[in-house]
Amino acid sequence: MSEQQNRDELINQTHEALDDAPVMNAAEVIAYLQNHPEFFVEHAEALAGLPLPTTRDGNVVSMAHWQNNMLREKAEQHQVRLERLLAQAASNQQNHDKLLHLVSNWLGLVDANDLPAQIERDVQDAFHLDAVQVMVWNEPSRAVYHPSGQSWSDNVVIFANSLRTPYCGPCKGFEIEAALAKKSASGSIASLAIVPLWGTLNRAHVCVGVLLLGAADAKRFTPDMGTHFLQSIAHLAGAALSRVQSPVHLSLKT
């Protein structure tokens, strides 16, 4: 008797034995196989020739072939995930390098009063933004350091102090949006980030200003985006701007 005939006979005997036996459901079959892993070893020859009725391309393949396909699909999924992680790591490294370069520029400035304008230029160029505005103030003295020649209501300072994490999202008619839009080449912005700048003045941890980032793209800044990198920029910029000690003589509006 040929090998194929032996396998067919085994399958027929199995079917006959199962005709009079209680029908097992899928969960029971899976539980049995999990509890008897030696089944696959003891019946390897029979299983290798066992056809499966459903496949992706409609062909009938052996269980071994099907298992190989499943492993290949999982390997491809892992490869895609790995490629995404590597791309994200590369992007993070680029941002880290940019930030390091910015901080080096800021530390190199001799006159601290040049810092606000320098930070605006550096951040806008490094991250390809449509508009960037830095505001620096001394709340106790009610004096504005930067920008000169402009006045702001107390609401700006109060709002910035209330933020513990950056606001990212669409424009909502904030008072500071109008000035930020004027710095854009198009004269308008669709989304923005409002990043409070925290520094140390007289040994106290205070909000020394705010960093405004504007984009014509409505999807550039969204409420669900991560803010860790923005907070890193704010932490370093706030520390640098704490050096600004000569305020422009311009009082806040009440």
Summed up, the helix count is 9
In what range is the share of β-strand residues? 15-25%
Output the CATH class name of the domain at 112-241. Answer: Alpha Beta
The unreliable regions are 247-254
The assigned structural class equals alpha+beta
> What is the helical fraction, as a range of percent?
40-55%
Order of helices and strands: HHHHEEHHEEHEHEEH
CATH superfamily membership of the domain at 112-241, which one? Answer: GAF domain
Largest sheet: 5 strands, antiparallel
Strand ordering within the main sheet: 4-3-7-6-5
| Mean pLDDT over all positions | 77
Could you tell me the CATH topology label of the domain at 112-241.
Beta-Lactamase
Number of strands: 7
The Cα radius of gyration reads: 33 Å
What's the architecture of the domain at 112-241, going by CATH?
Answer: 2-Layer Sandwich
Summarize the structure.
Helices cover 50% and strands 17% of the residues.
Explain how this protein is built.
By secondary structure, the protein is of the alpha+beta class. The protein has a domain of 130 residues: Beta-Lactamase, CATH 3.30.450.40. 50% of the residues lie in helices and 17% in strands. The protein is built from nine helices and seven strands. The strands form two sheets. Strands 4-3-7-6-5 form a five-stranded antiparallel beta sheet, with helices on both faces. The protein has a two-stranded antiparallel ribbon with strand order 1-2. The longest helix is centred in the middle third of the chain and has 46 residues. The C terminus is likely disordered.
